[in-house]
């Protein structure tokens, strides 16, 4: 049984006979996309974990792409009716859009077990444990039988628009050069499954021999890494033309 952002008003905090609960089926997975409090934030979705697996994409409250201005949202690619619904209940409706995308991407939407979304943004919940990470959506039941905890809260990020699936990588860069400079470092990953756009790893003071770590939520499953493109930008005019390089770049896939 898959709960697509089960309702919060009149259901949250009620007995299990009234609302969705993991006792309702052998396996219950839930996608929370609009779990901010109804008052004052108009959150339509329930926030507590109520299934065997509870997924909180992007933290479960505010979905990327839902903050667009109303006019652009109403005159949507999918038509005015779809756009108007998205304007009224965009976060809430993301749950079924993620679910339908998950059918197309059986290896996508990996949920990382974590105490909270803030902790997910650190290195503490990466990579997947030995038994792997469950996939949010249609293929969540592949994880049935691997659940040890009463409730498993899972976090991940999604894209702003279709296609929503992203694949998480940890990138660690050690810089080389003669002197510290100001600027930013971008990385693009190339692999057997495709390549990513440039992702920013660090911005500010760049110190040679220092190591910088960042997460990339890539729009493609790159497969086996074949090449990494490193680019740094000195964002102010510097007559000394400082040089900076990457001594090492380490890429770790969250999945394996």
Automatic annotation (TrEMBL):
This is Pancreatic lipase-related protein 2. Its main location: other. It catalyses: long chain 1,2-diacyl-3-O-[alpha-D-galactosyl-(1->6)-beta-D-galactosyl]-sn-glycerol + H2O = long chain acyl-3-O-[alpha-D-galactosyl-(1->6)-beta-D-galactosyl]-sn-glycerol + a fatty acid + H(+); 1,2-dioctanoyl-3-O-[alpha-D-galactosyl-(1->6)-beta-D-galactosyl]-sn-glycerol + H2O = octanoyl-3-O-[alpha-D-galactosyl-(1->6)-beta-D-galactosyl]-sn-glycerol + octanoate + H(+); a 1,2-diacyl-3-O-[alpha-D-galactosyl-(1->6)-beta-D-galactosyl]-sn-glycerol + H2O = acyl-3-O-[alpha-D-galactosyl-(1->6)-beta-D-galactosyl]-sn-glycerol + a fatty acid + H(+); a 1,2-diacyl-sn-glycero-3-phosphocholine + H2O = a monoacyl-sn-glycero-3-phosphocholine + a fatty acid + H(+). Signal peptide: none annotated. It is a peripheral membrane protein. It comes from Thalassarche chlororhynchos (Atlantic yellow-nosed albatross). PANTHER family: LIPASE, PANCREATIC LIPASE-RELATED PROTEIN 2. One of its GO terms (biological process) is lipid catabolic process. The gene is Pnliprp1. Residues 167-256 form the PLAT domain. GO terms for molecular function: galactolipase activity; lipoprotein lipase activity. It is an enzyme of class 3 (hydrolase).
